[in-house]
Amino acid sequence: MKMQTSTILQAPMNECYERFPKYIEQINRALTSHLDNIETPATQLVEAMRYSVLSGGKRIRPLLVLLTGEMLGVESSTLLRSACAIEFIHCYSLIHDDLPAMDDDDLRRGLPTCHIKFDEATAILAGDALQTEAFEMLAQETHINGEQRLKMISSLTRAIGCSGMAGGQMLDLIAAGKQLSQSDLEQIHKLKTSHLLGVSIEFASIAANCENKEKIALMNFAQCIGLGFQIKDDLLDVESTSEQLGKPQGSDAALAKPTFATIMSVADAKKCLDQIHQQAISHIKNFSNNERLLQLTQYLLTRNF
């Protein structure tokens, strides 16, 4: 049976929404519509999926899809389902990251994590189901041709498997309590975080049939965004509060995880972040209609939570 109409749960308003309300509202409507139209007798499973997806969130990855597409002249309607697929993948990863066997967090986006709200088994299944829903959305996308769909699916599978997000999470887990070099830490977060952010940008380039020179510039931009985003996250874990973050402050330190704020001084991490910010800007400065994507870049690398 279909679930009742979903609503966006009350979670703390974030600055990203205030900067990009039109896009985030469009994304939220599409996410809600898809979740409302899942037909299954497993109602608790879908409720857990809805809870995890619709409990706020910055929608950074789908925003990257839509704003990169806008810069490249691709209509948002062409990319909206693809953008939502990436958000489903991101939400699945958060559900699993929060589990007791992983980071063991009780709070996400200012609300109880999925396994606290429901139970561990339901949380595992909700994450699994969101992952499969993402690939179904891509497989059934009709706004792009078959070759483009196949490229997107292939790109996403690489980004979240052993050579991407899953591999990065494994390296992150075994790094706890160890001394890592900066290059080792960068490798972990390239796999764990940067690849999925990169796919968000790649999806738009696939839909736009970009030339090779444009693809290279966009992928260099994506690498900067991915690394800078993680450095900023590490700094926020040191400098922000749990209320601002919507999750436990200092959780990395509690798990003895090496971060960019611990392997170098906070001052050096901030200097590195500033350099990466400038590099990111340089990679897309020659694209026309890049204002919105530059605004998102500014937000991602200078945000307060």
Question: What distinguishing features does this structure have?
Answer:
Farnesyl Diphosphate Synthase, two-stranded antiparallel ribbon, 305 residues, mainly alpha, 16 helices
Written overview of the protein:
The chain is mostly helical and 305 residues long. The protein has helices spanning 15-19, 21-36, 43-53, 60-71, 76-97, 114-117, 120-139, 146-160, 165-174, 182-207, 212-239, 242-245, 251-254, 260-263, 266-284, 291-302, and strands spanning 107-108, 111-112. The chain has a two-stranded antiparallel ribbon with strand order 1-2. α2 (21-36) crosses α5 and α4 (60-71) crosses α10 (182-207). It starts with 14 loop residues before the first helix and ends with a helix.
